[in-house]
Amino acid sequence: MTGYKNLHRFIVFTACCTFLLIIAGGLVTSTQSGLSVPDWPTTYGHFMFAYPLDQMVGGIFYEHSHRMIASCVGFLTVIVAIWLWRREDRRWVRNLGYTALAAVIVQGILGGLTVQFLLPTPISVSHATLAQTFFSIMAALALVTSSWWRSDQKVLTGHEAHPKLFRLSVMTMVAVFIQLILGALMRHTQSGLAVPDVPLAYGQLFPSLSAEALERYNRLLIHNDIRIAADGPITSSQILIHMAHRIWAIVVAALVAWTTVKLLRTSSLPKRISRLGYVLGGAIILQITLGVLTVLSVKAVDITTAHVATGAFLLAMCVLTSLQLARIYGVRLQWSYSVSAKEIAA
User: Fold this and answer.
1) Dihedrals phi, psi of 151, to nearest 5 degrees
2) Helix residue ranges per DSSP H, the chain
3) Are 185 and 125 in contact (CB under 8 A)?
4) Coil, helix or strand for 12?
5) C-alpha 226 chain-centroid distance
6) Please, what is the average pLDDT of the chain?
7) Rounded Cα–Cα distance for residues 212 and 335 (Å)
């Protein structure tokens, strides 16, 4: 396996495994299995891969499976970094591979700290956010090692060039990333059902946060079996986090829709890139639908996990769209070192 095509295929495989890891992580949170295995890096005193399969039941199944998949992804990333170091001739791509390796190491440490410190919100949110970032890096590596990227591409100039479209795609990518952070914050502060109705919020555009209103909301949540008294009352902070996620979703939807329309209507774009508009449009429709169903289903495990996975997919597609637009518009890509235009195009 020394050919460059094999390197690309291996990176694609690693990216797919990373997506599977995000799904597994989503299942851990959705099933509230984060502390089903209370020790780390061992599993109830066992070496991770020596833990008896017949004891992987309930929450242990989700948490331990997540750990094993994460270990495999980490091992694959080490291979990717070494392979890029040995085979890749573009310094900025090698550096991107090293960044992926650093990210997966930090991710593993954050995962361990999450367990050791009993799911603290800052570490849990950082763990979730870095997972999305790492997946996007792997998707980017898959693109820049592809034969399409390395082949001679016509750089659009003059009336064919639409640099505003590239800037729009970057804005959309950043907006989606912010939304994923808000989503992670909502999940790890148990704010997902702080507002149980949609599209309104307790029958209002924006719910009151007065003490009387909060008391009424809590009675309603318990009466409708959405929460139990042992969960403790919802707070104004939880409602604000939930509403921030909803409101920013409108911004994201508008930017993705705008990007989709521009991709489909810009005739100078190669079909490979313009068709990404259909992917982005379909992904945002699916994501909004899953978000609504997450609330209406009272956070059903399958729907909630699909919502997390679709968010990761949407972010990765935004990253790939921005990179491909950068490629055909001749935007200089640099990573830690100044590189020549020839090296960028290679």
Assistant:
1) -80, 165
2) 4-30, 58-87, 91-116, 121-144, 147-150, 163-188, 211-223, 236-265, 271-274, 276-296, 301-329, 341-345
3) yes
4) helix
5) 27
6) 92
7) 54
274's tokens? 């313009």
Written as one string, the DSSP assignment of 253-310 is HHHHHHHHHHHHH-TTS-HHHHTHHHHHHHHHHHHHHHHHHHHHTTS-HHHHHHHHHH
Q: Is 67:50 a contact under the CB 8 Å cutoff?
A: no
Give the pLDDT confidence of 284-317 residue by residue, as tens digits: 999 999 999 999 999 999 999 999 999 999 999 9
Quote the tokens at residue 264: 């489909």
**CB-based contacts of 33: which residues, under 8 Å, 6+ apart?**
27, 58, 59, 60, 61, 62, 63
Structure-derived torsion over alpha carbons of residues 61, 228, 234, 232, reported in degrees to the nearest 10: -90
Q: Kindly list the distances between the CA atom of residue 4 and the CA atoms of 27, 137, 140, 161, in Å, as whole numbers in the listed order.
A: 35, 19, 16, 31
Q: Per-residue confidence at 156, pLDDT binned at 50, 70, 90? A: low
Residue 119 region by backbone torsions, left for phi larger than 0, else alpha for psi between -120 and 50, else beta: left
Give 203-244 as a DSSP string.
Answer: TBSS---SHHHHHHHHHHHHHTTSS-GGG----HHHHHHHHH
Q: Which of helix, strand or coil describes residue 335?
A: strand
With 0-12 / 13-18 / 19 or more C-beta atoms within 10 angstroms meaning exposed / middle / buried, residue 130 is middle
Give the per-residue pLDDT at 332.
67
Provide the residue ranges of all domains of the chain, joining segments of one domain with +: 1-153+335-346, 156-329
Do the Cβ atoms of 309 and 283 come closer than 8 Å? no
What are 105-134's pLDDT values in tens digits?
999 999 999 999 999 999 999 999 999 999
What pLDDT is attached to residue 162? 65
> What residue has token string 């790939």?
320
**Residue 310 CA: distances (Å) to CA of 72, 110, 204, 245, 303:** 22, 23, 28, 15, 10
